Amino acid sequence: MADTGAAVERLVEVMRRLRAPGGCPWDREQDLRSLRPYLVEETYEVLDEMDRVAAGGPWGPLAEELGDLLFQIVFHAQLATEQGHFSLADVATAIADKLERRHPHVFGQARVEGAEQVLQNWARLKADERKAKTGRAGSVLDGVPSAAPALQRAERLTEKASRIGFDWPDVSGARLKVDEELAELDEAIAAADRDAIEHELGDVLFALANVGRKLNSPPEDALRGTNRRFVSRFHRVEEKLAAAGIAFGEASLEQMDRFWDEAKAEERAGAGALDRAGGGG
After folding, report:
1. What is the pTM of this model?
2. Which tens digits make up the pLDDT trace of 224-267?
3. Which residues of 140-163 are buried (b: 16+ CB within 10 A; e: fewer)?
4. What CA–CA distance (Å, rounded) separates 35 from 129?
5. Could you tell me which residues come within 8 angstroms of residue 63 by beta carbon, excluding any fewer than 6 positions away?
6. Residue 264: CB atoms within 10 Å
């Protein structure tokens, strides 16, 4: 394993040279606004590799994508350094200080009984920090980015609310809420009320996100997995249509349904073979 400190110092120096006179023209033109899409893109590429690792893929590509994401952080820190605001060292120091401050049960004398109490303490400590900075404790929901994907944000909002006890004791209450919201969506559909349909559909999705949180199955990850399976299966449907000599747009729904079912069966058979090869039974 490479020396972490030396590797990070090398990366900071590479970044400094890219931005310095005589460095890379493209890097020298960038600013906070222009870098935004790259930061988002690199984050999602990390998520893609995490999904592949979770499905049994190699870890190496994940290291490469994490490096690309780290480069974005170093790039932003370099911009701040050039304007005299902060450096990468300040970024690292700030997060290390925060982690020590919010884990008094590890770095101090506090005692906790389980992860739930850790989360409760975290919420209280964050409120104390906000009050020290702004003079008010603010909301427990503060810190959930409004620009985050809506499904992910719904999960995080309910998770933060749960830290102060606003939550069902188990998943059954959250699951019943889904039925309640679905009934209200059905009423809106029956009334053909477009605004009400959007409102109630949002409530259904929010309730489902809460169920996912209660089941420790992040809804954003669950839906991303479903999207990936849909793409894979639909590609197989297209291949089967081509093999059968059926042009796109000319297949009947019954034909496409049959090919879809075949694609699902092939997917399950492939997953079963992978489990057996890996000792999964």
Report:
1. 0.69
2. 889 999 999 999 999 999 999 999 889 999 999 999 999 999 98
3. beeebeeeeeebbbbbbbbbbbbb
4. 29
5. none
6. 13
